[in-house]
Every structure is written in C-alpha cells, then in structure tokens.
C-alpha cells in the first residue's frame, strides 16, 4: 500500500513499535505470548482520532502491528476498527492476521530447548489445526504451507512434515528455513543421507549460522561418518559465539565414536572451565553413564535436573530425565524408572527416545523365555550335548521368578548314568542399589536313582559403588556342574566361592576369585583365579581387548575315575576382537573373535602350551528377541595327553 500515515513508513513502524512498547510497559507479554494490548489500542485510537475518515490509515496501522510481530494486537485493532478490512487490501490483511495468529509461536521462537510440554502440545495442535484449515481452503497458499511444515517439525510429526515437503513445496528456491525443517524431519525418521543433502544445500548461503553445520554434524553421526562430523564442527567453531557449542559437540563426538574415556576427559576439562554450563554438565553425566559408572552418572544427572527443571513456571529437561530413568533401571530401581518412563511418554508422545525408554523398561519387566543349546567335551574328551529351557517372570519391580530345566546326553553310553535331567526353580531380587540376591533349588528326575536330595544354591553380590563388586555363593548337594564321570558315580558337592572385581570404566578391569568344593567321595577341591583386561582399541565399528589370566587348583584325591589333578596351574593371555556390523535400536549385530594362549602345568607331568579359538555372533533380532551363536575349539592337556575339544553353543532369548 502507498498511503502514508504520519508522513513516512518509518513513522508508521515507530507507531506500531510504540504501541507494543506501551503494551509491554503495562505488564503484557509480546510476540509469541501476545494478548490484547488495551493501553496500546487507546494510544492508537487517540492518534487516529484526528483523521476519523481515513480508512487506509487504519489499515496501515493494522498492517504495521502485524509486521512488528504483534498479530494479536493487530487482530484486536481491526476488531475495534472493522472498516480497516474493507477491499482487497483488507482481505489480504485479514488473511495475514489469521496466518500470523495460527503460527505466532512457530515464528517467534517457540522451539525452545526446555518448555512446558503440555502447553507446547496444546499450541502445536492449535497451530496445526488452523494451518491445515487454511491449506484446505487455499492449497496454493505458500505462506500457510511453509508454516505448517514448521509446525509439523516442531510438534515432532516427522512423517507429516516429510509428506508435506515432498508433495506440496517446490524444492527449487525453497527458503533455507523450509529446507532446514525438512532436513530435521528426515533426520528424525533416520534418513540421514537425505537430511545431510538438504543441510549442505544452504550451508554456503548461511555459513555464519549454526543450523547447517549442526545439521551436517548430526546427519554424519547417524551415518557413522565421524570424519565428516568432525569437519562440520571445525566450521561451526568459526561461527561467532559457537566456540563452546563446537567444543561440547567434540566431546559428544568422542562418545558416539565409542572413545568413552577420551570423551569423559574432554567433558571434565570443559567442566573445569565452564562449571555452570548445562550442556557441559549433561555431557559429563552421559560420559559417566557410558563408562559404566551408573551411580556417578545418576548423581550428575540429578544436578543437571536441579538446575534446569522448575515447577513454576514449568520448565522441563526431557533428555536428562530419560538418562535418569535409564540409570535407575540399571541400578534395579525399575519402579522409579517405570514411573519416569510413563510420565515422559505421556508428556512427549512423539519423542522416539521417550518411547524407546518406555519400551526398554517395560521389556525388563516382561516375562522372558530362554533356550540354550551347546555341544562341548567334558573331562578326558567325552562329548556331551546340553539343552536348557527357562521361563521367567517379574514378581514386582525388584524380584524375578525363574523356572526351567537342564538336559544332557553323553556320547559314551558307559557314562549315561551321568546324563543330567534336572528341573529348577530360582528367585532373584535387587532389594537395594548396593545388594543383589538370588537363590534356587533343583531336583534330579533322571532315570538313575542316586538318592539325591534337592540341590540348593544362594548367591549375594555387594555393589558399594560403580567400581567395586563382591560376590559370595554357596551350593549344597549340587551335581550339574561336576564332570561327567563324577556325575555317573552319583557324586554331589558342597561349594563355597567368592569373587572381588574392580571396573575402571571401559578402559580396564581386574578380578579375583576362588572357591572350595567338598565332594561326596571325600575329595576336597580348591581353586583360585586372577584376571585383568585392558581395552586396547575402542571405536564405533571395532574394539579390541587384551587380558591375562592366572589359574590354579588342588585336589585332595587323585585316585578317582574323573580328572582330578593333585595340583595344576596355568597362565594365559586372552584377546577379544569385536566388530559392530549393525547398531540401530532393536537391530544390533556384533561379530567377535575370542582367543587364548598359555601354558598349563599339572603336577607329575611336563608343562605344555594350551589355547583356544572361538567365533561368536550376537544379534538383536528385535527389541524383544536376541540370538547368540558361537563355535570354537580348545587344545587342552589331561595327564600329559593333548586333546582338541570342540564346542558349539546357541542362545535364544525372547521377551513378551
């Protein structure tokens, strides 16, 4: 429009801004939270009273209020001055005000990192309903279409956003913010290649904005292109004011690349420089959790939540709450984790991370069936085939009941009396974060009656902190784990065992263990083990561990039909290589190579080399099913004779 009010466009905008300032001075919010500015309307009425017949001046004032970011003020103004809506210009003004009201929170910074979720959902639903109605009325309305795309994206309705982008928005010449919204939606639907192409399409024209570089970074992370992610961070660091953001994301890049110890060190250094920064605290808390230090990570997460979550006004931090729920589940507080997960999925129904957490907690509390099968060799190279079937169900959030059975069959019929036919009932509980308890009873229902009573077992694990763990166990009249020939004689054993382990995060761990068994034939067996493992290489695709193990045992009797050396000992070097060939939720696949080589010494015989090699493949078939398949062989010495012992095993787990 060409009509001037008070002489110039600058004067008109000044008038609109003056109205908004007066409105704000009266204690009213502006922009996204705009309400009717009564003081401002009075000021405008007074200024326009001198020209009561100038309808175009009133239309100009309404346009200027809308252009200044106060659509509600403009709507109130034209309500008081309906003549401003006359003619084609008035129709255009009405359309603009309607669109601005529908999208006011979208255009004026509604997409905040913390927010009141119920209000956000209400606003998103209202915006989407209004904008969809405008599109149905005028499918060619590019402005309403663009606002609707942004509304879908901010409401996390990613499929709707992609459908609208691909169907209704010309890609050539699309504004950068439309491409950015579409790229975010592609990324949310795990289509990172398409997202990256869109981010790169406006990276040049918006080189001094953080959005394209952060988008390229996250798309590269999703594709496990960590070099490209690092390059994007280099560009982000050159954007004024984004240096700390780039530094924080470098720490996350180390975590995503499975370089957990380096990531922790990076966040600890950032914490010393920026102890009050929320992002630094969140990264450090996550690093502790990924190191396996659940308590320390939970404590850090609680600190983050205390600083970023308020009740009045409601400001929420869903990311930290998801981390807290996962930590609580790891510590056995499944009831608290379930409450948190239920609340999060109710508040953020479109958030895939909240949904995944909810499913994970529910899965841990679900019944499970497990089937195991293996073929290996017992003492003296006697072959056995084993089968185990178990079903378990929760008894509340801290206890689980299991029932199942073992069966075995020896290849040598002379020892068929040693075949296992066992049914068992077990109970495990986690009464506190520092304590884990389990116990069970087993019955022998084999064809041969050795007069065995039920076998009993109890175990306790003390977990005082993230690094130390102590295990204690006792079994009475147990027979299943004895050598085949000992079982064929009808023997049982009473066993005490204990272990102590130290876990220094993902980098290294060490453990000590030992026990004593009293067999029913009078043989007393004692054993001890010391082991340490070092993570030599850690990455997103490949990791490698090296270790050393020292073992020794003594037996009070050697004049028995089963392998029972008076004294033996061994020293072995171990290695595990693991390749991650798929790593998406519910579809993880790892392939592992396990090797051991050492020296075995048995009293009365010459020492000699021993070793083994195994291949193992581990699939997460879905979020509820997992399959492990392995095969290998070991070369062992028995009374100076070398034997090659093959082994095959399979485990299938299914939650319901």
Task: Please provide a written account of the structure.
By secondary structure, the protein is of the alpha+beta class. 40% of the residues lie in helices and 31% in strands. Strand 1 and strand 2 (383-394) form a beta hairpin. Helix 10 (176-188) packs parallel to helix 12 (210-222), helix 14 runs antiparallel to helix 15 and helix 16 runs antiparallel to helix 17. The two termini are 67 Å apart. 29% of the residues are buried.
Give the strand order of the largest sheet, numbering strands 1, 2, ... along the chain.
1-2-3-4-5-6-7-8-9-10-11-12-13-14-15-16
Helical run tally = 21
Oligomeric state as shown: single chain
Q: What value does the average pLDDT take?
A: 85
Radius of gyration: 34 Å
Terminal Cα span: 67 Å
Tell me roughly what share of residues is in helical segments.
40-55%
Structural class: alpha+beta
Number of strands: 16
Considering the chains and any ligands shown, give keywords for the structure:
single chain, 656 residues, alpha+beta, 16-stranded antiparallel β-barrel, 21 helices, 16 strands, elongated, disordered N terminus
